[in-house]
Amino acid sequence: MKNWIKSLDRRLLLVGLIGVFIGISGFAATSQTLKATDSPEFCSSCHVMDTAYETFMDSSHATLSCNDCHAPNDNVVSKLTFKAKAGLSHMYMNTIGSDDIPDVIQANEASQEVIESNCIRCHEPSLENVVYHDVKEGGCISCHGDIPHGSEMYKPDDWYEPMDVDVRK
């Protein structure tokens, strides 16, 4: 009986160590994958994002990742949920979802709210030094939207309205 218990203890220890190894490896792989999918290079891998990438790399925000502005940064769960939904939507649109893939994707209302909150999150300390001015409907991006992507991004020849894509179909 004692040998059986020792054997069981060794098996549990081995299974536990393997589980810890798999957990650490999975966490590291997930962390690296999330970091890689935040990069402008990853986002520009679809031709739809070429203009966004080019104008972004020439902007004062070029040192940021795309998701510093385009995904919620209040907590990990909301960021990952938003990122997954947007990623699935973009994959759908670029594969089977559209006969006429746009040259530029315009931010939908949910994205605009996220972008606006991230403008405020980063620039809030300096907003105290700004002389008060009337905020137009549409918030920061209604006047300052050309800062991260340049004016070319916001006035292309072929403009497409936002598309809300339901990937659950």
Describe the structure.
This protein has 169 residues and is an all-alpha fold. It has a domain at 37-154: Di-heme elbow motif domain (Multiheme cytochrome fold, Orthogonal Bundle). The protein has helices at residues 2-36, 40-43, 50-57, 66-70, 76-95, 109-127, 140-144, 150-154. The longest helix is centred in the first third of the chain and has 35 residues, at 2-36. Residues 154-160 have low confidence and may be disordered.
Largest sheet: none
Low-confidence runs? 154-160
Q: What structural class is derived from the secondary structure elements?
A: mainly alpha
Percent helix, as a range, is: 55-70%
Measured distance between first and last alpha carbons: 57 Å
Radius of gyration: 22 Å
The overall strand count is 0
Q: From the 3D coordinates, which CATH architecture of one domain would you assign?
A: Orthogonal Bundle
Number of helices: 8
The CATH top-level class label of one domain: Mainly Alpha
Shape: elongated
Strand content: under 5%
CATH superfamily of one domain: Di-heme elbow motif domain
Secondary structure topology:
Blueprint: H1 2-36, H2 40-43, H3 50-57, H4 66-70, H5 76-95, H6 109-127, H7 140-144, H8 150-154
